[in-house]
Amino acid sequence: MKEDKENNRSDALKSKFEELFKDNYSRLYYYALHFIQDSEVCKDLVSDTFHFIWENIDSLRMETAKVYIFTHLQRLCLDYLRHSGMMVAKTDSYLAMLKEWNGNDWRESEARIQKIMCLINDMPPLTRTVMEQCYIHKKKYIEVAGITGLSESGVRKHVMKGLNIIREYFSVKYKKRY
Predict the structure, then answer these.
(1) Which of 2, 22, 52, 112 is buried most, with the most CB atoms less than 10 Å from its CB?
(2) Contact 141, 152 (CB under 8 A)
(3) E-assigned strands of the chain?
């Protein structure tokens, strides 16, 4: 009985890790390339990041996992640059500024994502369902049409309605081009 619980927990952790890996590997790789121009080194650092995550998967909170992974990779990249002797006199200040900017950018990004999720939750039920299916579950319009009973064009209209609500909140004005 206890062994079954451990196996189920182990399977759940493995599944959580696989999802993180699949969803973030390429983004992390390109993020590392912003710091280091050597693709092999970037692959190694991303692998080291996922190795670290796997070793600490028990204590990882999914709601902050992405930020944590990117922050860990950023630290590895900065450490690599320091140890490789590639830094010049002004690079320290540049990296400090970049680190601060990235930290603020992530906090701001997370706050925006949370607000967007609140806006989606407050949308009319059908629009909310369409937005969740398209943007959270990454389904195609045709798939969402099958789920909701709408036409593909109806799904598109609900997406536009949802995006307009979000744009209006963030005061983003887009001009229509004719």
Answers:
(1) 52
(2) yes
(3) none
In the chain, the amino acid numbered 24 is N
Q: Quick check: pTM over 0.70?
A: no
DSSP 8-state class, residue 149: S
Residue 42: CB atoms within 10 Å? 23
Task: Output the six-digit token pair for 92.
Answer: 């320290």
Task: Please write the tens of the pLDDT for every residue from 24-42.
Answer: 899 999 889 888 888 899 9
CA distance 45 to 47: 5
How many CB atoms are closer than 10 A to CB 134?
20
Question: 80 and 42 in contact (C-beta within 8 Å)?
Answer: no
11-25 exposure pattern, b = at least 16 Cβ within 10 A, e = fewer: eeeeeebeebeeebe
